Amino acid sequence: MKILGLGFIFGKTAYLKDSWNILDFVIVVTSLMSVGGADPAEATEEESAFNVSGFRAFRVMRPLRTISSIKGLKVLMSALIAAIPLLGDTLTILFGFFLTFAIAGQQLFSGILKLRCFNVQTGRELPDLSLCASDADCPGGFYCGKGNVNPNNGATNFDNVPYSFLAVF
Description:
By secondary structure, this protein is mainly α. It contains six helices and two strands. It has two domains: 2-83, no CATH class; 95-168, no CATH class. The protein has a two-stranded antiparallel sheet. The chain is elongated.
């Protein structure tokens, strides 16, 4: 309807004169080609399936057209885009703080998250997975020792700087 009302290519208000309409047109046409094309999973060597699944990601950009139609939203988005380069200094300072606390966490807590209560006779870990700091923290018949596994399948630890940085983040 919009193409019929504005004209397709020719004229001052033609449909393809606006960049958002061009994006919308490309998305719709590639979507229609993928609907009419063969299924890539069922294609043989003789049939070449036209695969445009990568273009489907551009469908997300269709709602961005509202930015150009609402004046206040356009001003807000242009202000946000203008602020992005200024965030570089802030991110550098934030990275410095994270790195400082990651190194401090490594110095203070390296290996502590591996301490668990183990059975004296069997050497098996206490099933409740609670941390211990000394043998006094463990029930009778158990001692505090260092195991091999950190919490969350080894993802949460302060054993090296990258994992410490991730834990601080």
